[in-house]
Amino acid sequence: MFLNSIDSHPMTQPNAQKPRIALALAGGGPLGAIYEIGALCALDEALGGVKFNELHAYIGVSAGGFIAAGLANGITPRELCASFIENTGSRADVFDPSVLVRPAWGEYAKSLAKLPSVAAQAGLRYAFKGGSLMAAFERLGSALPAGIFSNAMIDTQLRKQFSAPGRTNDFRQLKRKLVLVATDLDSGDSAEFGRPGLDHVPISKAVQASSALPGLFPPVEIDGHCYVDGALKKTLHASVLLDEGLDLLICLNPLVPFDSTRAPARRLLSSGDAVIPKLSDGGLPVVLSQTFRTMIHSRLELGMKGYEHSHPHTTIVLFEPDHRDPEMFLANTFSYRQRRALAEHAYQQTRKILRKRRTALSAQFAPHGVTIQQDVLDDLGRTLVSHQRAQASVRNRSGRALHKLEQTLNDLEHAIQAA
Fold it and tell me: Are 343 and 315 in contact (CB under 8 A)?
């Protein structure tokens, strides 16, 4: 787990004014949602003076939009865990991730209907118009489906979930500001659902559009426009909220490039049967994963530096996985079988970084009325998912003594760096 923070000399709020605290959640597919739920559960427990389902504003991109929409509707991080990770919530709240791997039969049907005409055109162009064989194959590409899996159930399930008493599927009826970002496929522009002009779109439909990763899911048509994943334009889109004035912005980014040269172990196969000394030895999936993560993270780093200069009176804190952590890199981005273990891992790693940096974070959070609950972090028996809570053992005295020693050394390191 890695923490980056931008402390831009935040202005102390008058006693009568409640600090404006917001949350920005980046995307990352199902793995991103799992990480963000685990991390949010840890933060929600450990930070006093703030409730993550009662913040001033939220912005979400792709999988982060799914989480942000739930929080803005008053659903707590623990309730999101029960719904998405453990599937133990109420029947209306349970979101079964397996619905996201259903074939997009509608897209397949449209492609089959187009295939005879497209094939005839390609054949005529090649035979009689002097076209190349490659050009003929490119023409056939227009008959391929626009997505492999159907994302229609995102709208269906969230619409049902947000119809419960006390919730809403209408941006305009929310008690808190919510923005979900997608990308207009035809223009390449960002579409900020929830802002004036796009606030009439149902929240569930906006989540579906924001998470429509090209190639995997078909574009989502809304009011004659086709929308795809919001991460195509930017990784975080935090400026949408920062421009309206904030005191504290907490950001979560689930995908980071993996530094295998500094990792404690280099087992790059989930089975553990082989040791791959270089990422290139992991084959095409590992290479593509590292490439994708590096690209989106470089955009995030540039964005964070820009926020520091453009919004000097806002404290911005970024939580993300440790670049040396093989658990979050090796996990299959679209694996649901591992979601309990991965959520627990994100939860524990977030608690670890809070313990390690509690002195520095306390100084950053204090002007905004946010405190770190020492007793919560020092309770080493806390776990996230239910079956691990039941199996958790109480740490012995020597373990607690080592923990205290580690904290003292961390505080000393921070003091030396500050000096």
Answer: no
